[in-house]
Every structure is written in structure tokens, then in C-alpha cells.
Amino acid sequence: xxxxxxxxxxxxxxxxxxxxxxxxxxxxxxxxxxxxxxxxxxxxxxxxxxxxxxxxxxxxxxxxxxxxxxxxxxxxxxxxxxxxxxxxxxxxx
Length: 93
Known about the structure:
This protein is an alpha+beta fold. It has helices at residues 27-38, 63-71, 74-77; strands at 3-11, 42-47, 53-60, 81-88. It has one domain: Dimeric alpha+beta barrel (Alpha-Beta Plaits, 2-Layer Sandwich).
């Protein structure tokens, strides 16, 4: 049975100063997220409107798979973001 996980993204060590997220090196991150969406893994995701980071919700079998997905994220690999994964129990839909 698949479970939901939320990933909270924060500015990483290679975030470019006080520039907006639209001015960061996030093209490959966007492509990666788009592919996860096409595969039915990414349920929703996007930046916080205050520019402090972003969030995504994924649906996979276990936290190990969620961690593998995060470890392959170009924005994590390039240090633009850091992130934490949280198992998420949906109480209301």
C-alpha cells in the first residue's frame, strides 16, 4: 500500500543570495518534478509564496523510496535546496 510523504524544501548553501526562486538554477529540478508527476509519484508541489522554499507531496511505498527520490533531485544534488521528508497521514480530503 502506498503512503503519502511531504517534502519541505529550504534554501540550500548554493541558493543565490536574496534572489527570487525564479532566478535560481531550478530548471533541472522542475524537469525532475515533472517526470515524477507523469509517473504518478508527485501528487502536488510548488514554491512557498514568501520565497523561503517549497513543498511537495509524493505517494510511494515507503520512506526509503521517498529518500531515494529526494537524493536524486537535481536541486538537492546541486545544493540549491536542502530538504526534509515527513510521513503524512491525511485526515481530511
